[in-house]
Design brief:
Glucosamine-6-phosphate deaminase; 7 helices; alpha/beta; binds 2-amino-2-deoxy-6-O-phosphono-alpha-D-glucopyranose; 3-stranded antiparallel beta sheet
């Protein structure tokens, strides 16, 4: 079944729309005295959306005191403090500028000891469950259809785990590193089933991703196109610009 899409004339407007939905959810939960559990993504795609959330915090008093976050993924191995880490990314673009309690921030850690990763990944799943599950998961999409770092071939039953990055993903993300050799070969990512358990999912995409968006929205549901499984989620929306929606 086709995934519902909201199409905007540019990424800024799409980003504002998503930030507004997130802010509304946070405030609704606040009014009920409840926590709001957000699943967060990195990459260039959500940067404007985070900037808008920061603006809503600074200019309109949106508070993140009741917010708990779980990030999708992290390179492995990589020091938390490295400029390229998703830990650094999230602090640079969002966490350093809002009033979230640092204890409520969860990001897979590129410094986990290799022997303990399995247990740490299980613990990550447990932490999500203990928080009551993810209320709203934000996603980007890789050119090969990956969500989080679930590369093509990832099982729809997969959970948080260590994975091998596709070469195309390493090439696409090389700009963040000094050169391709410096891009880690592994990553820790929430699994497809972890993502699918979220109560609401918003996938954003801008620019030159029309072909993979068309496959994901209306192509066959296949593990070769990880984002295509989102067709089977009952509350998922794609937020697109005119470029990414061109082949729908
Ligand atoms: C990375 C992230 C994904 C992200 C994708 C797209 O590989 N792990 O979560 O969606 O890149 O990146 P961009 O938003 O820069 O196009």
């Amino acid at each position: 079944e086709k995934i519902p899409c909201e199409i905007f004339s540019n990424p800024k407007e799409g980003s504002r729309y998503v930030a507004k939905e997130i802010a509304t959810l946070i405030k609704d939960k606040q009014a009920k005295g409840e926590k709001c559990v957000l699943g967060l993504a990195t990459g260039s795609t959500p940067i404007n959306m985070y900037a808008e959330l920061v603006r809503l915090h600074k200019e309109e008093g949106l508070s993140f005191k009741n917010v708990i976050t779980f990030n999708l993924d992290e390179y492995y191995p990589l020091e938390k403090d490295a400029y390229q880490s998703y830990w650094s990314f999230m602090h640079r673009h969002l966490f350093n500028h809002i009033d979230i309690d640092p204890a409520n921030i969860h990001i897979p850690n590129g410094e986990w000891q290799k022997e303990t990763i399995k247990a740490r990944c299980q613990e990550y799943e447990q932490l999500i469950d203990n928080a009551g599950g993810i209320d709203l998961q934000v996603l980007g999409i890789g050119n090969n259809g990956h969500i989080g770092f679930n590369e093509p071939g990832s099982s729809f039953f997969s959970k948080t785990r260590l994975i091998n990055l596709d070469n195309s993903t390493r090439v696409a993300n090389a700009r963040e590193f000094q050169n391709i050799a410096k891009v880690p070969r592994l990553a820790i990512t929430m699994g497809i089933s972890t993502i699918m358990k979220s109560k609401r999912i918003i996938l954003m995409a801008w620019g030159f991703k029309a072909a993979i968006i068309a496959k994901s929205v209306e192509g066959d549901v296949t593990e070769q196109v990880p984002a295509s499984i989102l067709q089977q989620h009952n509350n998922c929306t794609f937020v697109l610009d005119e470029n990414t929606s061109a082949e729908l």
